[in-house]
Amino acid sequence: MEHFLNWTKEKSNEVGFVYFVKVGRYTKIGRTKNPRRRMRELKVKEEDIIMIFMIPKYKSFERYCHAMFRDCRFK
């Protein structure tokens, strides 16, 4: 977490959610202000939710997570 806080240049401390969910055989990383609504939109079952973070600077944290897992990305 400390590494992320040093990495981000986002000025806003707006709190939101970053999620990791299984979609088929893949893991989706995304962000939202309303995780219940977003899980319904994605038609995610509760058992497919890997993790949901409530975090300040959530937009930057989602980009950070994508960067951390870039080598695992499906192309």
What would you say about this model in short?
By secondary structure, the protein is of the alpha+beta class. The protein is 33% helix and 32% strand.
What does this structure look like?
This protein has helices at residues 2-7, 35-42, 58-68; strands at 15-23, 26-32, 49-56. By secondary structure, it is of the alpha+beta class. Strands 2-1-3 form a 3-stranded antiparallel β-sheet. Strand 1 and strand 2 form a beta hairpin. It is flat.
What's the overall average pLDDT, rounded? Answer: 87
DSSP helical segment count: 3
Shape descriptor reads flat
Provide the gyration radius in Å: 13 Å
Low-confidence stretches: none
The fraction of residues in strands falls at 25-35%
Number of strands: 3
Give the helix level as a range of percent.
25-40%
Largest sheet: 3 strands, antiparallel
Give the termini separation.
28 Å
Helix-strand sequence:
HEEHEH
Task: Strand order, main sheet: write it out.
Answer: 2-1-3
Helix-and-strand structural type: alpha+beta
Features:
3 helices; single chain; 75 residues; 3-stranded antiparallel β-sheet; 3 strands; 32% strand; alpha+beta
What layout of secondary structure does this protein have?
Layout lengths: L1 H6 L7 E9 L2 E7 L2 H8 L6 E8 L1 H11 L7
